Amino acid sequence: MSNEAIPTTPPPPVTFWEAFRYWFKLGFISFGGPAGQIAMMHQELVEKRRWISEHRYLHGLNFCMLLPGPEAIQLAIYISWLMHGIKGAVVAGVMFFLPAFILLSLMAGVYLAWGDVPMVQGIFYGIKPAVVAVVLFAAWRIGSRALKNEVLWAMAALAFIGIFFFDIGFPWIVLAAAILGALGGKFLPAKFKSGGGHGTSHKQHGPALIDDDTPTPAHAKFSWGKLIATTAAFIAIWLAAMFAISGQQTLTDMGEFFTKAAFLTIGGAYAVLPYVYQGGVEEFAWLSGPQMMDGLALGETTPGPLIMIVTWVGYMGGVAKEVFSNPIAAGLAGAAAATFFTFLPSFFFIIAGGPLVESTRGEIKFTAPLTAITAAVVGVIINLAAFFAWHTFWPQGVKGDPFVGAFDWLSVVVAIAAFIALWKYKADIMKVIGICALLGLAYSFTRPLLGN
To answer: Domain for residue 213, yes or no?
Structure first.
């Protein structure tokens, strides 16, 4: 943009309903994972509409990256909260995940009704190796940014060894990484400097509605009384929701489990997937490992944050545990419980913590533990890729005999090709999954001819 083209006055005030229309639209087009969603909001809100300045946008993003939970939806909540208070926060957050909730619930119902049809099985046969490639690519992408020195590489390796060989729970790995990061930040600060984060940008797009020097609005100013009241309100909402489902043990288990999961999603959705797997598949048996993989594949192709996999897990669990006699009602109840308890903390983090961050703008700290956790997350994600690869390449494998049955060489070829497409040719994830699904569909028609 040339100097002459840069606007010299801020845009007119944005009404609540104008903002509502934007957040509603964003919910349907927010593909591409957190990086794509963050870039999409930056282009629209910073560059085009100028609702918020570059500095304030990045400040909010850095805060959201320090929090548990999906950073893209929390950034949307943060910006909308700054503009229109609590009602803005609620609208932005709900609109961000609502389309994905509806789509994944619908697809889960279709999957359970017709998932054993050969044609549908063929589609998922092609999708599964693509999921292996997508998760491995996520590990590479995060690792290439986060693992800046031998100490962080060692932490990633230790995390992988801990979860793969010793089956250490994900929460303990996060806690150990945070402690090591805090110690490292004190004794080896150079090794724990935040390397791949979002720094200050000097791009100019003209004056913004919420500019660098715009005073903090009244509702966003910090006070201890407001913090205590907000915390109490969210605890009351959580207790009321738990009371409402207290008559159904499966839904109560989901409420407790997904609340814990929400506080452990440090490092993004890929990092918490092993924890969701441990609980959803192994501990509570809400769904099977292959069903988890199929849900992840569908989650990659729908808008909204990837952590929306919890909607799929909840739907499957509601049906599997027969929460209600009607399977659709049971699935929707499980999906609603999983989604509600996963995202409620995100609203709490922003509405309660936002005023504190606004009062200390420019002083976001505690990056050393975050850097350490991010390094450990790389090892955890590689473990997840190994788990998915095992399920895909040895489909008859079981825990006691992991390599029983035939080795599926065709899935290996598809996974390698998908990874190369993502890594070398920067192919779109949705297109890669779509092509792999078509390959699987074609194979389902040719398999009888080949005698398989």
So the answer is: yes
Instruction: Give the span between the Cα atoms of 144 and 152, in whole angstroms.
Output: 11
* CA pair distance 274, 259, nearest whole angstrom: 16
Query: DSSP labels for 273-307?
Result: HHHHHIIIIIIS-SS-HHHHHHHHHHHHTSSS-GG
In contact, 358 and 81? CB cutoff 8 Å: no
Residue 437 phi/psi, 5° resolution? Answer: -65, -40
Q: How far is CA 226 from CA 122, 221, 232, 354, in A?
A: 55, 9, 10, 11
Residues 336, 351: Cα–Cα separation, whole Å: 22
Gap between the Cα atoms of 366 and 107, Å rounded: 41
- Encode pLDDT of 242-272 as tens digits: 999 998 999 999 999 999 988 876 656 666 7
How many structural domains compose the chain?
A: 1
Contacts of 129 (CB under 8 A, 6+ apart): 392, 411, 412, 414, 415, 418, 436
Alpha carbon separation from 93 to 344, 351, 412 (Å, rounded): 10, 12, 39
* DSSP code of residue 396: T
pTM of the model: 0.74
| Long-range pairs for 220-223: beta carbons < 8 A, 24 or more residues apart | 220/81, 220/82, 220/354, 220/355, 220/358, 221/355, 221/358, 221/359, 222/355, 222/356, 222/358, 222/359, 223/355
Mean pLDDT over each residue of the chain, to the nearest integer: 85
Q: Which of 352, 319, 356 is nearest to 334 (CA)?
A: 319
Residue 341 region by backbone torsions, left for phi larger than 0, else alpha for psi between -120 and 50, else beta: alpha
Does a structural domain hold residue 4? no
Question: Would you state the structure tokens that stand for residue 400, as one six-digit string?
Answer: 């006691």
* Of 273 and 295, more confident: 295
Q: What angle do CA 61, 62, 64 make, to 5 degrees?
A: 65
Please list, in sequence order, all residues whose beta carbon lies within 8 angstroms of the beta carbon of residue 401, skipping any fewer than 6 positions away: none
> Are the C-beta atoms of 279 and 264 separated by less than 8 Å?
no
- The distance of Cα 156 from the centroid of its chain, to the nearest Å, equals 20
The verdict on residue 153 lying in a domain is yes
**Residue 260 phi, psi (nearest 5):** -60, -40
- The answer to whether residue 309 sits within a structural domain is yes
Domain of 441 in residue numbering reads as: 16-450
